[in-house]
Amino acid sequence: METTDVNVMPHLGEKAPAFEAVTTQGKIKFPEDFKGKWVILFSHPADFTPVCTSEFMAFGKMQKEFEDLNCQLIGLSVDGNSSHIAWLRTIKEKIEYKGMKNIDVQFPLIDDVSMNVSKLYGMIQPNESATKAVRAVFFIDPNAVLRAMIYYPLSLGRNFDEIKRVLIALQTSDNFGVSTPADWRPGDDVIVPAPSTINASYERMANKDEDITCYDWFFCTKKLTKEQVESKLGK
Asked: What separation in angstroms does the CA of 36 have from each of 32, 43, 75, 165, 201?
């Protein structure tokens, strides 16, 4: 991968930028090494910092939950591998926080001292810091397409239940051809794609399908049980 000084922003719906990197779990070639899996690539500003420590403990605790969703976690900061390893060892051996302890982080953490990957994914935001990556989260599907991304300032710790919810919602949209409304959780009604014409929408409203609720011609939902959603997660 060539070094770049341009802090580009990746685009939704396009292939995730490719790179090779050294990590705490060995060398990786992204996205080739993760074909067929969802990937959550996320950055943190620095090792041995309090907000980042709380986040890595949360991700480490939830790692199996993401694996069950066919999702690989990959972390990144602009620190080197030796710093990463020492920090993760400290987390496991010394830190107890909110009932979490002995957290063994086993997913790869990228050494990005060069900031090549950070710049490739727009993680360096100069008004936050020119030398640290902001807290970014990228959701990449099994076809290596970037499906969602969230950026946070350095001071704001992420909500990991929300990160998992986004992954589940993306998989549900793909599995059932639906959209998910505000605050959606598995078991809630989902949004039915609108027909191609207004007349078709009104016809659907008149049909009184017991599984479909229409609030107006452009806004209809249908039932999708939690069991239906969960039966296809990770597939």
From this structure: 9, 22, 19, 20, 36
pTM: 0.92
pLDDT at 1 (0 to 100): 44
Rounded to a whole number, what is the largest CA-CA distance in the chain?
65
Active site members: 52
| Distances, alpha carbon 66 to alpha carbons 73, 76, 164, 197, in Å | 8, 17, 7, 39
pLDDT in tens, 38-71: 999 999 999 999 999 999 999 999 999 999 999 9
What's the rounded Cα separation, in Å, for the pair 198 and 97?
Answer: 54
CB 212 within 8 A of CB 220: yes
